[in-house]
Structure formats: C-alpha cells, structure tokens
DNA sequence: TGTTCATTTGGCAATATAGCCAAATATATT
DNA sequence: AATATATTTGGCTATATTGCCAAATGAACA
C-alpha cells in the first residue's frame, strides 16, 4: 500500500471515527435539520458545555462541520450534505440491530 | 430523546466507530472487492494475526461483515452492499483533507 | 473601559482501545 | 487417533478517549 493510499484511508477513518460516538452522531443529525447554536446542543444532549465543545471540535477537525458567529452565539452547520444519504444506509444496518 | 431513539443512535454510532479505524476500513474496502480469507488480510495489513482477528470481530459484531468456512480457511465478506456508496461520500470529504 | 455572556481550553481520573505474545480451539488431513 | 493448520481468545502494557470542573478567551454591549 502506497503512502498516499494509506494517508487517504487514515483521513477517511478519521471522519468515520468522528461520527462514531452517540453524542457526535446526534449532533450531526441535528445539524442536518439546519444550523444550531452550541447552547441548543448542550441542552438537547444534557451534558456539560465543555463536553459538547470538545465533540464539536472533533467534528470540525474532521472537516464535517463549520460554524459562524452571529451576535454572541456560534452557529454550527453541516459542511457536507452527502453525509445525509449515507447515514440512511447506516440506519438500515443499525435498525434491526438496535431492536435485539 | 426517547429510549428507542437513543438506542438507534447508539447502534448507528457503533457501526461508524467500527469503520473508524484505518485497518478496519482497509478490510472493509478490500472485502468490497470480493471475499477474502483472514490470512490474506493479515498479509496485506502486515500486523499480527491476533490483531486482525480482533478487528474482524469488531466488524462482525457491528453487523457489517460475515464469514463462511471452506476447507481450512475462513472467508469474510461484506454483508451490507450499501456501505460502498457511502464510502465514496466519505472519500469525497477525505480526499482534499488527506492532501494537506 | 469594564462587564457579561457564549464558548473554548487545560487538567484530571476513569474507562476504552490497540497490538503484541502465548495459549486455546477447532477442524482437515495423515 | 495424532498432527498440522487457520483462527480466536486471554492477558498484558501503552496509549487514546470521555466527561467533568475550573479557568481562560474573546467579542458584544452597557
């Protein structure tokens, strides 16, 4: 495997890893409905502000989301619309498993 | 968030997490080309047999792959064809990032 | 300019993960 | 039945991740 191929695999794995946490996946699905401020996500997830902030930083770092500041608040949004399609595929796999 | 919704999110995250490791993603992409025996994967990855075996167990456990024994060897294959499509999406995100 | 508010960063303890070696398993073949 | 072969499992250490608290940042607004 060439260096280049290995780098690409790692980059892809990094994105999938970023999505592979319940809170982060929840955030991504929420953002799929439209942009959200950090404070809303904190409320929905019921965890500490700092925890959400770190999850957002992991998602940002993997290139999936971006944000914009307006007034005092930070609005996050999905950067990659094709994510939505594939999450349906994952759901088709996960749905039967989650019922066991 | 209802219990049911939370379970589904967790199940999906588990799948994504399983894919979120370079060796496991490599395995999945290799299997997308057709079934492979464990020994081939060991050789391609260049890590210990036991390590590959554990990666396979994680992938099996997340419902993505299955295997069949023929002769002395175990042949693994993808259980979920729709995975392929979405990996292209991930690649579209990852490609520019991996060049930085 | 000083204060306030939304968010991020640093630091910590608990827990999870990765990968190696050695030992166990299971089944094909002799 | 014994042996060989392919794979899995157990156990270990090193490293990474998670989530909280407290402190820092930085911009908006009084």
Describe it for me?
The structure is a homodimer of 100-residue chains. The first copy, chain A, is α+β, with helices and mostly antiparallel strands. Chain A has one domain: Arc Repressor Mutant, subunit A (Orthogonal Bundle), CATH 1.10.10. Helices cover 66% and strands 14% of the residues of chain A. A 3-stranded antiparallel β-sheet of chain A has the order 1-3-2. In chain A, strand 2 and strand 3 form a beta hairpin. Chain A is globular and about 50 Å long. Chains A and B meet through helix 1, helix 2 and helix 5 of A and helix 1, helix 2 and helix 5 of B. The structure holds a DNA duplex (30 and 30 nucleotides).
Task: Spell out the key features of this protein.
homodimer; 100 residues; alpha+beta; Arc Repressor Mutant, subunit A; three-stranded antiparallel sheet; globular; DNA-binding
CATH topology label of chain A: Arc Repressor Mutant, subunit A
- What is the CATH architecture assignment of chain A? Orthogonal Bundle
Backbone CA Rg of chain A:
15 Å
Counted by DSSP, the helix tally of chain A is 5
The averaged pLDDT of chain A comes out at 89
CATH-level-4 superfamily name of chain A: Winged helix-like DNA-binding domain superfamily/Winged helix DNA-binding domain
How many domains of chain A? The number is 1
